[in-house]
Each structure stands twice: as C-alpha cells, then as structure tokens.
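Ligand-bound model needed. zinc ion.
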Amino acid sequence: MAIRRIRTEGEDILRMHCKPVKEITESTRKLIDDMFDTMYSANGVGLAAPQIGILRRIAVVDDTQGNKVALINPVITFSEGEQTCTEGCLSLPGYQGEVVRAKKIRIESLNEKGEPVTIEAEDFFAVVCQHEIDHLDGVLYKDKAENYRRQEEQQQ
Ligand code: ZN
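Prediction:
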C-alpha cells in the first residue's frame, strides 16, 4: 500500500485525456489499491488516475453509503433525470460548487479481474461516478459548476 501525491489545479495532467487500459495486470491492481488508500487518506469519496499522475482510464469510488467500486475503462451508456449536488474535489482543495448531473446512470466497465461489469448508479453514487469519469477526459467539476466558491464551512 502506498499513498500517492494528489495533483492539484494548475498541473497539466488534470486536463489531459486518459488512455484505455489494455491489459489488467498485478501492477494495475496495485495501482487501484494505492488509489483507494490515497482517496481514504484524503477523506475523499472518489479518485481518478490522472489525479495521482497516471493517464489511464481508471477511477475508484466509495460513496460511504455501501457503494465501493473500481472502474476500468468506464463508459456511461445510459442516463436519465437530473439532480443538483454540491461537489468538491481533492484536486481543487478548499472549493465547492453546485453541479447538475444525471440522477441515474448505467456504466459499462471492467472490474479488477478484467471482467465486464454493468453498474447501475443513482443519487449520490451516480454523482461521484460522473465526477470521476469526467476526470478521465480532463474535465473538472468547476467547468460545470454554478457558484464555484471557497468552502466556508467544513468539507463535503
Ligand atoms: Zn475530482
């Protein structure tokens, strides 16, 4: 296990497109373990590979409500509805803003074993997944946010 350094705004890698994972190896699984460790140590609910300097389509999510998942080459294949959530990001520390996202989504992904999986997500879980998948294309939530601002109170 290892905690990796989280990249913050201004570092070019956060704006780059990530490449698909071609082969899931022991080092992929080690990377995913490190991503979870890094996310938990920063009290985050999601982390995407470019946030630790890796340009691969991998993200991890633990919404603290029972939904914990590693996403490899995730694609959103269905979405419906709308919800507005106050978001923050480990790469934009100390800021928050409201983002409108789909209420319910379906994701086609690979799991750590390289098996195709379909994930149905709604509400907060769906918000976190959409936020992390955006990172894989160099998109930050602030690009979509209303009232992007410094956090006044405790972190979300
Ligand atoms: Zn983020």
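The chain has one domain: 12-155.
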